């Protein structure tokens, strides 16, 4: 059941919107009120009991989003849709920055509302199924472009979490073109890989998962990617990935996913990101990354991860870079949660030894930064929409 609060400045448009909600076929409970976006705070109590907020205001302008921002800050799980006749780029940008899920143009884009509700309904049902049993958390690291350090960070993040002995950790390398996480962890390749899980979904069970993981230490396992990246047949389908993650959640406290970067992020990788509890985007201060990041944030947004919920991690942080942190945040409409320093010496040495640097160069600034990132993302209740309140850490810089 989706709880919807509709604030509309026109009874006529409100009826049309309600008919679109009806057309989606999802089960919903609707509360509605008439007024402008500026009056939103009057309805705070009803909005806090809702999961979707639709604001339809013909006069909506960027500077009137304060109330919307306040509501989104009060109710972290709230998904907000704005509807306006011809939303300007300024309005769309401002809305993204305050955490609005989607801005729709009236009346042309109102059909989008149907697909959004269907996606939210599917997510809600999936999370209800997941929460019915005790489960571990899935943390994904994505990147708009290869070479940003996603795998190094995912591997070391997993190793840092596993430092607590009573925590079971699984790293899954879903990267299609560069399934190389195993190289950061062991000198010999794993005899079994993800390709061995390519069986019908109903045959995917805990025993098979257990047989395919490589044991780095008693409480830290890794599921490596197929050895031949060109072997398309070895690629798991989205439904298989989802099943593997559901099984992994039951058996591990932390499931860290390296889905790959840029064009590597196919439907299977995006399915993994969609069911993740926390998504971080690894960035560099470079225009090529900025452009790719914008596109990637849009595809993540379509999956229900609004820009404000994706944690930005700047790797190889350079204080002197032309693209400084405020520029990056302004361009992407997302806050930088953490910065990691460049450290060629220790990164190369760790890779040469096939030992994560949080182990073999534990005192380096990079290792300390990754441990701090693990603390930030693992703090109790670190859910999806907390990026904006996480203090930015420029570790060791
Ligand atoms: N902060 C860093 N300082 C120095 N080298 C790094 C850093 N982060 C990653 N690297 C190195 O950069 C290369 C690419 O990193 P990788 O994690 O494979 O990137 P991606 O998975 O995003 O393609 C690796 O050799 C890795 O050791
Ligand atoms: Mg990689």
Spans of at least 5 consecutive residues with low confidence:
383-391
Count up the domains.
Answer: 2
CATH class of the largest domain: Alpha Beta
| Annotation field: number of helices | 14
Q: Trace the largest sheet across and list its strands.
A: 8-9-7-10-6-11-12-13-14
Distance between the termini: 47 Å
Sheet bearing the most strands, described? 9 strands, mixed
Oligomer: single chain
Element-by-element helix/strand order: EHEHEHEHEHEHEHEEHEHEHEHEHHHE
Structural class: alpha/beta
- CATH fold label of the largest domain: Rossmann fold
Small-molecule binders here are:
adenosine-5'-diphosphate, magnesium ion
Gross geometry: globular
> What is the residue-averaged pLDDT?
87
Q: What name goes with the CATH superfamily of the largest domain? A: P-loop containing nucleotide triphosphate hydrolases
Which CATH architecture of the largest domain would you pick? 3-Layer(aba) Sandwich
What is the total tally of β strands?
A: 14
The percent of residues in helical segments reads 25-40%
Q: Beta-sheet strand percentage?
A: 15-25%
Give the radius of gyration.
Answer: 22 Å
3D structure, described in words:
The protein has 2 domains: 2-106, Response regulator (Rossmann fold, 3-Layer(aba) Sandwich); 132-394, P-loop containing nucleotide triphosphate hydrolases (Rossmann fold). It is built from 14 helices and 14 strands. It has helices spanning 11-24, 44-48, 66-74, 89-98, 111-131, 150-162, 206-212, 238-251, 267-274, 287-302, 325-332, 344-353, 357-360, 365-378; strands at 2-8, 28-34, 52-56, 79-84, 102-105, 137-142, 169-173, 214-217, 220-223, 254-258, 278-283, 311-314, 336-339, 393-394. Helix 3 (66-74) links the parallel strand 3 and strand 4 (79-84). It is globular and about 65 Å long. The protein starts with a strand and ends with a strand. The structure holds adenosine-5'-diphosphate and magnesium ion. Magnesium ion is lined by residues 150-151, 175, 178, 180.
